[in-house]
Amino acid sequence: FPSHDSVPREKMTMEEEAADNLKNYGYEFISTSIPHDWNVKRCIVSRFKGGFIFQADADQAEMRGAANFSGDPVMINIFAEGIDIHLGTAAEVVNKPLEEVTKFERKGAKTINFGIIYGSSVPTMAIKAGVTRTEMGGFFEKYIHRFSHFWEWKQKQEQLILTNQEATNVFGRIRHLPGASKATATGRAKIREGINFLVQGPV
Predict the structure, then answer these.
(1) Is the Cβ–Cβ distance between 163 and 152 less than 8 Å?
(2) How far is the C-alpha of 58 from the C-alpha of 193, rounded, in Å?
(3) Which end of the chain is least crowded, N or C, by CB within 10 Å?
(4) What separation in angstroms does the CA of 14 have from each of 37, 40, 46, 88, 120?
(5) pLDDT tens-place string over residues 93-122
(6) Phi, psi (5° rounding) for residue 101?
(7) 126 with 141: CB under 8 angstroms?
């Protein structure tokens, strides 16, 4: 990275400040402190002359895994139809045609889709979606009714984690989770870790 030590931070361009953050504080800092619309990736370059860095990501991999493992017919059908999962989820929950779903409704659906996998509470999801707890609570109730197979699968996996203190993914890999419990914050974190392992492990 070029040195910007002689340039005051208030006079740096966005790219210069991002590069300075990465140089001095590491990627974890910039990933949590730089606005998402900053093109931070432009500041990360290959150390090889003429080289390049690329990133590959499976599209909505966690949700595809959740649909497959839970066998939820509604969720599976959304993927089979080639529909964006969050758009399709919103359409199912608010009972609207796809073309009438608003960005706000899609955001709420996306928040719940990942919130269930990552163990977010209704109040937390409400904050992320920018709605009231009452609004998110109503959306959530409709969600678990429409995607009941997914919700029941998640509840069953939580119970297995509590009983066995471990999670086993589709490949037979085991994640030991001693202390998994709903009674403490640490115990609940173990449950979330187990669900994440089941969904993300095969990805």
Answers:
(1) no
(2) 21
(3) C
(4) 11, 8, 20, 36, 33
(5) 999 999 999 988 999 899 999 998 888 889
(6) -70, 130
(7) no
